[in-house]
Amino acid sequence: KVDEILAEIESANASSQDELEQFRMRFISKKSVVGELFAGLKDVPNDQKKAYGMKLNEVKQAAQNKFKELIDALESSGSEGAEQHGDLSLPPAGVGLGSMHPLTYVRNQIIQIFERIGFNVSDGPEIEDDFHNFTALNFPENHPAREMQDTFFIERNPDILLRTHTSGVQVRLMTNQKPPLRSIMPGRVYRNEAISARAHCVFHQVEGIYVDKNVSFVDLKQTLYHFAKEMFGKDTKVRFRPSYFPFTEPSAEIDISCQICKGDGCQLCKYTGWVEIGGSGMVDPNVLANCDIDPEEYTGFAFGMGVERITQLKFRVNDLRLYTENDVRFLQQFKTLH
Ligand code: PHE
């Protein structure tokens, strides 16, 4: 029997901690078969005790040696496993940090410039109703100006739409607060346009409004001059071109001197040296009245500009689609922005 146990010990294997523990229980612990053999020693006749005892010690020693061997084998196979998964003690490979989206950067810059001259930031819903997007802004019903905006209507209800500009936030602001009001409204807007390098169905605006007693066109011009020079540098020229918007009178388009060719002529400015960055004007008295502000007492100016266009001028992005494609080769170029 003792020889059988010895043979069992010699041939034992352990490929897991569980099996190692089983070996320990069976051959090493107090209640192991080896322990039982020792317990039986007292029943062995005296003349055989010595030889039998030596034999048992041999078995005990063999069990302990084997146990050590099994532990070592298991450990080294463990480190082989680690090799398969790479060296677990190495520091982890760096996770690439993302970069700020250029539109976010430029929007933040615009906000900072206006905040420094006393404008706060207002927000409103991207899903708008007809009243805030059109009617309160003096768009007559069935007026072609509504079509100018290529509106996305939601379902069949023509009253609910994706805002085509952030001017609806101006309406909300003027109906909820009384002048003096000085606020800008950055946000995403939607128009049903075919997507190309120069047009997109979703883009970003920052609009602004200033309503108080005696606000004049001079204030409008100075504010936008200030903005252009802060944004693009002291030498930037600004020009206003007469225009039409239902919600402003008079209205003007805002052009700045082309930042790409500096007047020498390029595709972006179509060889005119000027690039349009937005629209502006004095808030139409009808709009003030629609928002319960007395146009006899208050006047105001408003403006709106395209964040994509300003970003294009700052970073020479020549295709609007790049902003939304999330191509890392594009985004990585803005790593230094913060
Ligand atoms: N809401 C106009 C647009 O999206 C821009 C604008 C705002 C023009 C305020 C004048 C005054 O085209």
UniProtKB/TrEMBL annotation:
UniProt GO MF annotations: ATP binding; magnesium ion binding; phenylalanine-tRNA ligase activity; tRNA binding
Species this chain originates from: Fulvivirga sediminis
Catalytic activities: tRNA(Phe) + L-phenylalanine + ATP = L-phenylalanyl-tRNA(Phe) + AMP + diphosphate + H(+)
Family statement drawn from the similarity comment of this UniProt entry: Belongs to the class-II aminoacyl-tRNA synthetase family. Phe-tRNA synthetase alpha subunit type 1 subfamily.
Keywords recorded for this protein, A-Z: Aminoacyl-tRNA synthetase, ATP-binding, Cytoplasm, Ligase, Magnesium, Metal-binding, Nucleotide-binding, Protein biosynthesis
Protein name listed in UniProt: Phenylalanine--tRNA ligase alpha subunit
PANTHER family to which the protein is assigned, alphabetical: PHENYLALANINE--TRNA LIGASE, MITOCHONDRIAL, PHENYLALANYL-TRNA SYNTHETASE
Transmembrane annotation, as ranges: none
